[in-house]
Specification:
It is a single chain. By secondary structure, this protein is an alpha/beta fold. It has 19 helices and 14 strands. Strands 1, 4, 5, 6 and 7 form a 5-stranded mixed sheet that branches. A hairpin with a 4-residue loop joins strand 11 and strand 12. Helix 2 crosses helix 6 and helix 5 packs across helix 6.
Length: 513
């Protein structure tokens, strides 16, 4: 077993799969001295190579046939998450992706009891394939973010590469790295522990005995909310409750599913072949219906019997994600929508969540001695939720903040967006789409800005003040909890909370504090 824990990467494996990509690209694009710069060519190259590599990953996954092999990857993922400094960060990211990809693929396999039979280079091959998938995915999403104008595809007899062809874009990436590496964007944020405890109480109330039994299976009646980041690996092993074919460190929920067939709560946690699609999850990594991180219980066929397995850490991690990255944004597993209590709880949590950003924003505004209106659904007896926007098919809607700087004769019309911190291009694309899609954030803020400019007298009356509108300038402004890559080129400034005070002073979008 030691040879598995000491993971060794053979660079020849990456060369092997890299060469497969080169052959594929040479079939699609003639070898030439000049790079390909058309966005559709670069997109096609990335997509085709990702498709090839996913098939290679699935082919490797099909070699997993025994319970010990499944056990290894489940327990290894937990160890990676607990002992975060064991491997270089870049390797840790790939190792974690390997395990996450495999969890979904396990649902398609037929497993038998037995020991590890895979060869010693197995992980090295998975590492090589996953690393290349990640590289092509990043390039693909850079195409989407910058319309491909900054990238080029080079194909030669023995080499291919997707490289940067714009000095301006290269500088932008350097700036991005500086921003991410800086302390400027780190804040207190939300408290996952308190959220989990609150959710546990709610789940206990609305789901009843099944939630209690679920907790008991994992921790033998101990509290489900456990900070696994502070456990030694030996202590973590002791938490697992071995009840079935799968050996130590694995929790078997099969009896619980037999006791509660077709249960709403449990069904919302199942990762099965019906809700797994590796290629789709790579192309759309934030599609929650195709992500293993929100569904911790793996449905797996062992000797012809469907069993439901996981580990304590995977369950704990999934619930942390569920509470902090779904419920606070008004999202729950589809199966849980049948429970009116949890639906109402989610709605209330989302409303509370909005204030986590708006309250500190208001404090900054007050400290600046600005005038402001907050969370306005009506202004001077005009119902904004029914008031027609410049697009007659749309309404103006609630305005988070109207801020007036009387010293600079400036009016800010603000929307607050509690966007989660993101560090990769796939995530940046999701943000960009939220802003610039049809009826997205940009369009809706535009409606509000136009309305405030054309109804400034109504705003003045709401504030009980007189303003000479001809002397004022108006600006739409987004305020977020964290940095948003799209803000480097967005039509409206997108200002992280930590930069907001300085932005009001100097008007600079990007700064490292």
């Amino acid at each position: 077993m030691d040879k598995w824990i000491s993971i060794i990467i053979d660079p020849n494996d990456e060369k092997f799969f890299d060469n497969k990509c080169l052959i594929l690209l040479q079939e699609q694009f003639p070898v030439c001295d000049k790079p390909y710069t058309n966005i559709s060519d670069i997109e096609d190259a990335c997509k085709n190579c990702i498709c090839l590599l996913v098939k290679e990953f699935e082919r490797e996954c099909n070699k997993i046939t025994t319970t010990e092999e499944v056990k290894f990857f489940l327990s290894t993922y937990s160890e990676l998450r607990i002992n975060k400094n064991k491997y270089p960060y870049t390797h840790m990211v790939i190792y974690s992706k390997i395990c996450k990809y495999l969890f979904g693929e396990f649902t398609k396999l037929h497993i038998r009891p037995g020991k590890i039979e895979l060869d010693e280079n197995y992980i090295s091959r998975l590492f090589a394939v996953t690393k290349l998938i990640s590289n092509f995915s990043q390039s693909l999403y850079q195409c989407y973010l910058d319309d491909g104008s900054s990238l080029q595809l080079e194909i030669y007899e023995s080499y291919y590469g997707i490289t940067t062809r714009s000095h301006e874009y290269a500088s932008k990436l350097t700036r991005l790295k500086q921003i991410i590496d800086s302390e400027a964007l780190k804040g207190e944020g939300i408290n996952p522990s308190s959220l989990l405890l609150d959710f546990k109480s709610c789940a206990q109330h609305f789901f009843g005995q099944v939630f209690t039994d679920f907790s008991d299976v994992i921790f033998q009646a101990d509290d489900i909310i456990v900070d696994c980041n502070h456990l030694d690996f030996d202590d973590f092993i002791k938490l697992a409750d071995y009840k079935g074919i799968i050996p130590n460190k694995i929790v078997d929920f099969t009896e619980l599913f037999r006791k509660y067939p077709n249960n709403t709560f449990l069904n919302g946690l199942i990762l099965s072949s019906s809700n797994v699609d590796l290629l789709r999850s790579i192309h759309k990594p934030h599609d929650i219906l195709k992500r293993s991180r929100f569904r911790p219980i793996i449905a797996i066929n062992i000797d012809g019997e469907l069993r439901y397995i996981s580990t304590p850490l995977i369950v704990s991690e999934a619930f942390s994600e569920l509470v902090a990255n779904q419920i606070l944004f008004g999202i729950i597993p589809n199966e849980w929508n049948k429970n009116s209590g949890i639906v109402e709880y989610t709605k209330i949590q989302k409303e509370k969540h909005d204030k986590l950003l708006e309250d500190p924003v208001e404090k900054i505004i007050r400290d600046k001695n600005f005038l402001c209106l907050r969370n306005k659904k009506s202004i001077n007896n005009i119902n904004l939720e029914k008031e027609k926007a410049i697009n007659p098919e749309k309404n103006v809607g609630e305005i988070d903040f109207i801020i007036v700087d009387i010293n600079k004769n400036k009016v800010y019309v603000c929307d607050c967006k509690y966007i989660k911190t993101k560090y990769d291009f796939a995530s940046f694309c999701v943000d960009k789409n939220s802003f610039n899609k049809e009826n997205g954030y940009d369009e809706r803020l535009g409606y509000k800005l136009v309305w405030v400019k054309s109804h400034f007298n109504d705003v003045a009356k709401e504030m009980n003040l007189d303003f000479e509108i001809s002397t004022y300038t108006f600006e739409g402004l987004f305020i977020t909890y964290t940095f948003v890559y799209y803000g480097l080129s967005s039509p409206y400034p997108i200002i992280p909370l930590k930069w907001l005070s300085n932005y009001f002073d100097n008007g600079q979008r990007m700064q490292i504090c």
